[in-house]
């Protein structure tokens, strides 16, 4: 949590990257098989949970209506999201947020040392939005934002939003920090650019609405692993909310705006 800003208690938010049946090497553990995603979403349904895009989750939480929801997020905007994740999501009546690297549309994940994944182009992003999924920004170049100077922050955070809004002809409310790298200046840049919410990496204690934590989902996560992640999140959330309640000076989000 940054700068004593108010906490937004949220249900768990799951973080995926590539969804693909490819058997190519995956040294960074970014690829979840579509059949595994299908099992994960089937488990959520059996638990009475529904996966939703992060902006929908945040807005539901503000209305006190987030019970039974789980956030679903997919980083980097790979073409396999359209090919393999969207059909599985739709089969389960769920949706998620895909975070696109706005300066690399139609390109590849050049920021990684590992295997190349194709990134969706403008038409594919529009198809994703038309399929009821949320498209958020993941900067222009997948930049590390902690310590970045103001001009870099303005471009990576603000310009990426303008590019995507131009592509989608719609508001882009969500942002995701590459590598989960952020500091107070980066969070301020996210607010200044007009985003509604932003998420980081890691399922540590919940933050404010522009530093929302997420649970990493590993390519090898079984349903049991996923249950453990959900339980761990709810334990941490309860503890953090109790700590806030015991400390009257610290505002608790959900109560105010
Ligand atoms: Zn990323």
TrEMBL record:
InterPro entries: Glyco_hydro/deAcase_b/a-brl, NODB_dom, Polysacch_Deacetylase. SUPFAM superfamilies: Glycoside hydrolase/deacetylase. The keyword DNA-binding does not apply. GO terms for molecular function: hydrolase activity. Keywords: Hydrolase, Signal. PANTHER family: POLY-BETA-1,6-N-ACETYL-D-GLUCOSAMINE N-DEACETYLASE, PTHR34216. CDD domains: CE4_NodB_like_5s_6s. This is Polysaccharide deacetylase family protein. Its EC number is 3.-.-.-. It comes from Geodermatophilus arenarius. It is found in: Secreted. Residues 68-257 form the NodB homology domain.
């Amino acid at each position: 949590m940054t700068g004593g800003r108010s906490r937004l208690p949220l249900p768990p938010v799951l973080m995926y990257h590539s969804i693909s049946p490819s058997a190519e090497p995956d040294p960074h553990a970014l690829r979840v098989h579509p059949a595994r995603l299908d099992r994960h979403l089937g488990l959520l349904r059996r638990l009475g949970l529904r996966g939703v895009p992060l902006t929908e989750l945040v807005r539901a939480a503000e209305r006190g209506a987030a019970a039974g929801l789980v956030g679903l997020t997919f980083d980097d905007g790979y073409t396999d999201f359209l090919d393999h994740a969207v059909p599985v999501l739709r089969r389960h009546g769920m949706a998620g947020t895909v975070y696109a690297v706005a300066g690399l549309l139609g390109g590849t994940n050049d920021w990684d040392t590992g295997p190349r994944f194709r990134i969706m182009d403008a038409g594919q992003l529009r198809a994703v939005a038309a399929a009821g999924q949320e498209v958020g920004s993941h900067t222009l170049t997948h930049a590390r934002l902690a310590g970045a100077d103001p001009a870099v922050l303005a471009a990576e955070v603000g310009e990426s939003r303008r590019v995507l809004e131009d592509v989608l002809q719609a508001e882009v409310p969500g942002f995701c920090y590459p590598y989960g790298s952020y500091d107070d200046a980066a969070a301020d840049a996210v607010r200044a650019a007009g985003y509604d919410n932003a998420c980081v990496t890691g399922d540590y204690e919940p933050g404010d609405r522009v530093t929302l934590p997420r649970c990493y989902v590993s390519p090898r996560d079984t349903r049991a692993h996923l249950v453990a992640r959900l339980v761990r999140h709810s334990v941490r959330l309860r503890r953090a909310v109790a700590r806030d309640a015991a400390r009257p000076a610290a505002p608790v989000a959900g109560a105010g705006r």
